[in-house]
Amino acid sequence: MRQLIAIFTRSGGILVFLILEIICLSLVVTFNKDQREIYHNSKSIMSDSMTHGWSEITQYWNLSAVNDSLSGVIAELKQQKDEAKFLKTIQQDSAKYTTEDFEQQYTYTSAKVISNTINLPNNFLTLDRGIRDGINTRMGVFDNQGIVGIVINSNTRYSKVMSILHRDSKISAKIARLNALGTLVWTSIGNPRIMELKYVPKHLNPKVDDIVQTSGASSYFPGGLPIGKIVEIEKDPQGGNFHSVKVELFNDLSTTRYVYIVNNLFKGGFKEIEEGKEDE
Hints:
There is one protein chain. By secondary structure, this protein is α+β, with helices and mostly antiparallel strands. It has two domains: 2-71, no CATH class; 109-274, Thrombin, subunit H (Beta Barrel), CATH 2.40.10.340. Helix content is 30%, strand content 32%. It contains three helices and 14 strands. It has helices at 2-31, 33-78, 267-274; strands at 85-87, 102-104, 106-116, 122-127, 140-142, 147-154, 159-166, 171-175, 180-185, 194-201, 211-214, 226-235, 242-249, 258-264. It has a six-stranded antiparallel β-barrel with strand order 3-4-7-6-5-14. β5 (140-142) and β6 (147-154) form a beta hairpin. α1 crosses α2. The chain is elongated, with a radius of gyration of 30 Å.
């Protein structure tokens, strides 16, 4: 009690002043038409501003929830396409293929990017999907414009992805027009939009604006996913047997927010044959 009295003694003058100010303002607004209109107009403007601000906040969160839902639906649609399936038979007339000729090879899980770097020699992303969502290592990651990277670690809730903007990243790719295979690497440190397609044989004739896609020759990605387009071609100045091909990525990894994680259902058999194991 003594503390309350002490506080009132020190600040009593200010409190009395504020109370009298409120009373005076109330009297002015009550008995003066012009001031009353100004008060009500100002109150209306403040109320509208607060309502609009709250509406924008709720709309932002609602849009985020809608994006999460849509990315899941798109993932399901992608795995229904023929590119996500293994063709069990080969016929001259592809129009005669039926659903029984295909076997599901790839499934996709949508995920949100939690963190991402693009300015380092070795860049990584963190995704909000983990082991409980069926995510583990050696899974490819892509978005709606192009490829993103490969999962290298995961725990219950999150996964770590080695970005394609990493010095150790090596992606099997091809020039679509020529069906020419190569290895996509990141050599343009500091430029997150340019990569190099190595080991394209010199006797082939790639051209600027040729489209580069995933080759399907690895367990990470199905074939035909877009990567980028050729923007520059250099012959080996030392007289080697390969072109040096610069590729501009279709996607901008600095803006990547939603991705799809690839689960290759045939990955186990692929890994066995890569490691030289044979069926007994």
